[in-house]
Fold each of these.
Amino acid sequence: MGRAGDGGTVMTIRRFEDEGVETFEAQIDGETIQWDKGLSYARHLQTEQLLSAQVPVSDKPDEMLFIIMHQTMELWLKLVLHEAKLVVSALQADDLDHAVKTLERIATIQRHMIHSWEVLATLTPHDFLTFRGFLRKASGFQSHQYRELEFLMGNKREDLLIVHSDDAAVHSRLTAVLNAPSLYDEALKLLARRGFAIPASHLERDWSTPYEPSEAVEDAWLAIYSDVETHWDLYALAERITSLEYYFQEWRFKHMKTVARVIGQKPGTGGSAGVNYLVKALSLSFFPELWSMRTRMVAPKEGPNYADKPGERAE
């Protein structure tokens, strides 16, 4: 037993061993609180390293917001990548229940990421210009996690690897993802295993090249959406995959509008066209047939034709 006091308050601390680890117990606000010399909150979350990772390159107070905003975005990207790889594994194992559940989690993360741009939008043009010159060529274009996520979702661009050539480990990881089937490629392989006529050219190919839309793939998705009761699990999967792109594009749009609000039409710090470059990205599609198929869908004919004159309507 031990006693601790602060400002006249005396607290009794009980010491004991639990599974060979020295453990402590005290009554605090009517609750029995325990802690030990093993795994603590700070050790588990590595808070000392995490909270010491904000290293401004200027003495301007608004740079801290800029750093923390981008660091938290990188953490969310890390989680999305983690979850997306679980989706790929589930698709490979024909485990649609886990694939759908994980895609739903990703969608929730993405909505949070979209909303978080509003924090950065509090950085006014004046605020940003106080430290922008200190950033030199550092740019979000160099985010290797963002690049990995784009590769994993299917936007393959081998030329973009050159930006990461100074980091051998990162370059190697990105090269591996570039040369592996994307999440969408795995979904198409799943459709083929289910008996849909997916072209051989879309089941075995050079995975490092950009995806080319296929009418046959569009036909397969259309068949699923035209008979959802028969193909309910594939229909549910398709909607979650569509949401993945839907929210990704919303995140891109919010990014573009935030940049426009902060720097206008200036070039990016890394030399890109800034807002105009981000606008171009909005035209990219990861899962093209899931979008084009919707145009071909038709409603079943029910009831009279209201374009006919009243006396000509079929009963």
Amino acid sequence: MGLENENMKGLVLFSHINRLGSLSAAAALLGMSRSSVSKHLAALEKKVGSRLLNRTTRTMMLTDVGRQVLQEAHKVELALQTIEHISDDHQTEIAGNLKVSCSSAQGRVHLVPLLAKFLARYPKLTLNLQLEDRFVDMLAEKLDVCIRVGFLPDSNLIARELGTLSWLLCASQEYLDHAPALNTPKDLLNHRCLFYRNSKTSMNTWTFTSAAGEESVTVSGPLTINDPGALVAAAVAHAGVLLIDRGLLGDTIEQGKLIPIITDYKPIGGLPMYAVFPEKEFMPAKTRALINFLLQEMPAILNPKEGF
């Protein structure tokens, strides 16, 4: 016998009737009419296929079947109360497991350094971070939060912007020593440029702004890679000019392995970073805690004070 919503309601109602001793008392407690309570009881008896109560004008006694059904009704009532407490705990207590997804490069550089602080703040949490460079289906993969970079397609997911990646144009000194002059963005047309490319995206239109206004160039080069870390390694190996999120450069600037170039022109069009999560009427406290933490901490990671 399947347990439908009306059956469940009838079982809880049956438990109330027995606890209070009459249909009228149960109706008063639940804000229902006595006739409505009577109909629910009759429907439950029909579903069970047997009378549950023997009633007279003054007494009400359980039948043998009624006693068995009452035991199960108590279990249903207790289960519903337990579920309510679990729901309340998930809304208020910051505990449990979080499953988070982020692209590999951005995760290593921007997200991982923050996680120790987050978990120290919420010691009842555990967090599983999936670093992967592919589209993930949040609902199918049961993810709590995804960190995504770039402009998002329309969806039923909710997104909170965490900040914008800050771009830097750079190259190695050895590359510059053997390359044509590089003083303005249009000079990039004469250079080997390194940029991100995969089967769907080619990030080779670079835009800059200066006192003279905005200028865009479509660059080219013999080497394109679909991994930002590999692009940095290629630039360090003197393979060409690179425009990339400065956070991904690590300490290559401080160590002199790469040098900022044409600094009078500021790269624009840095991609936004978002925390994305499923649309939920009641967001778990653990998810809200992570999102609020990232909103507070991530901007300083994405846009550190310029030291060059």
Amino acid sequence: MWKPRIRARHYRSDYLDYTGCLAVLLPHRPHTTTEDLTMPAVATLQKAEAADHAAAEAMDRYVIVKSALYTSGERDPRKPPEHPDSKGKLHLMHHDPRLPRMPDKPTLFDFFKLRFGPSIHMLQSARLAQKNGCSEKIILACLIHDIGNAGFIRADHGYWAAQLLEPYVDEETTFAIRYHQVLRFYPDEAYGYKYPESYVRLFGADYRPEPYLDVAHDYARKHKYYEAARLLTVNDLYAFDPNVHVELEEFTDIVGRHFRQPEEGLGFDQSPSAHMWRTINWPTRYL
């Protein structure tokens, strides 16, 4: 028997009203009544409402205390934080019920799907590197170079991403990810890399890199892996096409060959960066 399939990833619900969603997502079949069409969508809505209700009930049991870094700037971190009412509640020490639950042994792709923000930029950069004939190491670097700001910390995101990934990729890939943070501010005519126009709009025409970046740039230029980092910046798209769709699964084989997925799962393998993966997994734990 034919069963309707809803491919929600191709549509955004905020663009469609309830009836429009049904009309677009569910293909017409002879002898199909409005009730037949409505039932799957209603069931999905009921499940979502039940999950929201369960999460709300769970949150009533817990106190969520934000880390100082989350609010620094919005408030003066030197001042005592405001303490929420904790009477009769526990401080959260495990999964945050407001977030999708991660598998017990999470993989890199699990973090992409359940913890990282939109990854179209990284996916398109990896696709571009592939089209440009780059090595698989560079393609992988493009795929994962911005996981720092996609799931952890924006400032110095290249350094954070390199630290997260260092136990699981080779040193050339790590170097490329770390120093793309630096090299993006410095043109290199030999590789056809120009200072991004978007940076003028974002930071102003008079912006100049901090002195520590000048030092890091000089170091990277003399390093044996300079080309790897520079190729990452060349393929690091600064203006991407929202109409170009790239699937994460396109890079399954490359990730399998060049990313050392720990058997215990990211965050539970006792690596030097395991604690960082656990923090992304459980970002609101009290301790």
